[in-house]
Amino acid sequence: VAFQPLEKTVTYHDPCRLGRMAGIYDAPRELLQMIPGIQLVEMGRSRENGVCCGTSGWTNCTACSKAIQTERLREALGTGAGTLVTACPKCEIHLRCALKANPMEIQIKDLHDLLAEQIA
């Protein structure tokens, strides 16, 4: 598969199930780096040391979870990335919700959507 270039700095949020439960860390990053022009920067807490988006299949979206989501967005923003990419639809939804409540200069993007948009 060939991808159209995209001059963008992104950071990747490791979903709990894909990362800590399934141990898949490299594959999403390898896919991102197949897009010409993408610069991937890591958050301080990533891979095995990554943190939950704040809402899992076992918790509701509470004030505590919203604080975790906002902290995660700030961590992503601190990398200098303009886009936070994740491969979990639940993470995407809840991080977008936190971004709506706490506007910041960062976009939230699903890995699959980003790849599909860039197919040449």
Describe what you observe in this structure.
The protein has 120 residues and is an alpha/beta fold. The chain has a single domain (8-118), classed as Rossmann fold. The protein contains five helices and four strands. It has helices at 17-21, 26-33, 63-77, 89-101, 111-118, and strands at residues 8-13, 38-40, 83-86, 107-110. The protein has a four-stranded parallel β-sheet with strand order 2-1-3-4, sandwiched between helices. Helix 4 links the parallel strand 3 (83-86) and strand 4. Helix 3 packs across helix 4 (89-101). The relative contact order is 0.23.
Shape summary: globular
Summing up helix and strand content along with how strands pair, one would put the structural category as: alpha/beta
Kindly state the percentage of residues in helix: 40-55%
Give the strand order of the largest sheet, numbering strands 1, 2, ... along the chain. 2-1-3-4
pLDDT averaged residue by residue? 89
How is the main sheet built? 4 strands, parallel
CATH-scheme architecture: 3-Layer(aba) Sandwich
- In whole angstroms, how far apart are the ends? 8 Å
Keywords:
5 helices, 120 residues, alpha/beta, 41% helix, Rossmann fold, four-stranded parallel beta sheet
Summarize the structure.
41% of the residues lie in helices and 14% in strands. The termini are close together. It is built from five helices and four strands; from the N terminus they run E-H-H-E-H-E-H-E-H.
